[in-house]
Amino acid sequence: MTFSQATEVPLAHPFIEALDLALHQLAAKDRCLLDNDRINERALSFRLAMHLQAHLPSWEIDCEYNGWDVPCHAMKHVVTPTHAAATEARTVFPDIAVHRRETGQRLALIEIVKSGSRFGKHQDTKKLKAYKTQMGYEFALLLTLGVGADAGSHYAEVIV
């Protein structure tokens, strides 16, 4: 996996190793989804979360999670909500959360961006920073998944 800030990422961390394995599985087992650049980002997030769960069995892996006891107050100013049918929806919840529900143990947040997305990364970065700071997650990653001609490539940007 390629990182934008590799010096700040503990590459030997079990989460990073599990994510790398899950990304390889996504590329191998779900290649038809990656080859089709029209596939919704939410479908890719779900498949990645399934692969990640297999490598982190003691953690819960949730997509679009909104079950925290305390809401992240910055969210109402970060992203404009949209309707569920939108294929390029901008939501206020992270695409993938790795945590232990109701325990306060919060490992990672992942926001998925498809290569060639027409949206900039600014809002996703703001969202991840707010959740990482206010909710206490150890990692926050903006993960670009290669789709179409870029299928199988991926790039992680660590949000600090």
Fraction in helix: 25-40%
Work out the helix count.
4
CATH class: Alpha Beta
- The count of β-strands is 6
Structural class: alpha/beta
> What's the main sheet like?
6 strands, mixed
Tell the overall outline.
globular
CATH architecture: Alpha-Beta Complex
**CATH overall fold name:** tt1808, chain A
Series of secondary-structure elements, N-terminal to C-terminal: EHHHEEEHEE
As for the number of domains, it is 1
Distance between the termini: 18 Å
Explain what this protein looks like in three dimensions.
It is a single chain. The protein is α/β, with parallel strands linked by helices and 160 residues long. A six-stranded mixed β-sheet has the order 1-6-5-4-3-2, with helices on both faces. The protein has one domain: Alpha-Beta Complex (tt1808, chain A), CATH 3.90.1570. It has helices at 14-29, 31-35, 41-55, 122-135; strands at residues 2-3, 60-63, 96-100, 105-114, 139-145, 154-158. The model has no long low-confidence stretch (mean pLDDT 85). The chain is built from four helices and six strands; from the N terminus they run E-H-H-H-E-E-E-H-E-E. Strand 5 and strand 6 (154-158) form a beta hairpin. Helix 1 packs across helix 3 (41-55). 31% of the residues lie in helices and 21% in strands.
